[in-house]
Amino acid sequence: MSTKKIAIIGGGNLGSAIAQGLLKSGFTQAQDIIITKRNTGTLSHLQELGVTIEKDNAKAITQSEIILVALKPYNVKEVLQGLKSAFDPKRHVLISVVTGVSMNELEQIVGEGMAVVRAMPNTAIAIQESMTCICHKNVSEEQVTWIMKMFDQLGATVSIDEKLMDAATVLGACGIAYALRFIRANIQGGIEIGFDVRTANLIAAQTVKGAAELLIREKRHPEEEIDKVTTPKGCTIAGLNEMEHQGFSSSLIKGITVSYNKIVKG
Ligand SMILES: NC(=O)C1=CN([C@@H]2O[C@H](COP(=O)(O)OP(=O)(O)OC[C@H]3O[C@@H](n4cnc5c(N)ncnc54)[C@H](OP(=O)(O)O)[C@@H]3O)[C@@H](O)[C@H]2O)C=CC1
Ligand SMILES: O=C(O)[C@@H]1CCC=N1
């Protein structure tokens, strides 16, 4: 358990999910989390758990050591500029989960020499099942150890070069939406061939979980596992080939590159 106080600036979808994951993990106690947003009404579920809800960002920052910024990319610079005087490079570590804003840009806004971390988690962080990619600047060894320990409580963590952060955003953070859409399509198909929606949901989700676990636990390549399922002249290969004729893999690869270009080119 950590006693460092964490301020989450921007308690929206991801900011709240991080607070939930931190509480579930036991890494941080509710009294050591402050979460901010302007319309605080949506944070009552966290308030009930003992988290401090705050409208005043500067107050949250001065009361904390770890400042986790989960604002939208379009207002993060303006909001942080207004908070510059609240930041203390000797005391604070700034962790940004904001898409497309570099560590240099963040450092320029909050102050030269500030310990800056970029982390790219996904919304499964709420249940400690995130994939989080991390890079950092001006961060001491002790701070890195602490940060990795925190994110390790919230799922899997990998350190990457900052130049891969946009790619990490697409594959890991957007990726959860792509995976969910895949599951939804399976549910729709499952209903068409006879299942009620709840049963189809369970079968589709557990099947995807099992497939993922085979890759994660056994460190296998997908095609190695697919080969075990595709009986010659069987129904799996017939379905798979039809999916490929319809552009299944191609549509995913194209979607991923469009998503990436949206971050890089705007
Ligand atoms: N959602 C996701 O799955 C992921 C998102 N990200 C990144 O995380 C960031 C947040 O995304 P997401 O949570 O989806 O966005 P949200 O819009 O849900 O959250 C942003 C929050 O910031 C609050 N906010 C706006 N202005 C201020 C302010 N001046 N002070 C304090 N809070 C403020 C807003 O609430 P209010 O208007 O009430 O103030 C809002 O709830 C983005 O940069 C996104 O790119 C990264 C990975 C995954
Ligand atoms: O869609 C978005 O822009 C954000 C970034 C990653 C997930 N959601």
UniProtKB/TrEMBL annotation:
It is found in: Cytoplasm. The keyword Cell cycle does not apply. Residues 5-99 form the Pyrroline-5-carboxylate reductase catalytic N-terminal domain. It comes from Chitinophaga defluvii. Keywords: Amino-acid biosynthesis, Cytoplasm, NADP, Oxidoreductase, Proline biosynthesis. This is Pyrroline-5-carboxylate reductase. Its EC number is 1.5.1.2. InterPro entries: 6-PGluconate_DH-like_C_sf, NAD(P)-bd_dom_sf, P5C_Rdtase_cat_N, P5CR_dimer, Pyrroline-COOH_reductase. PANTHER family: PYRROLINE-5-CARBOXYLATE REDUCTASE, PYRROLINE-5-CARBOXYLATE REDUCTASE 3. The gene is proC.
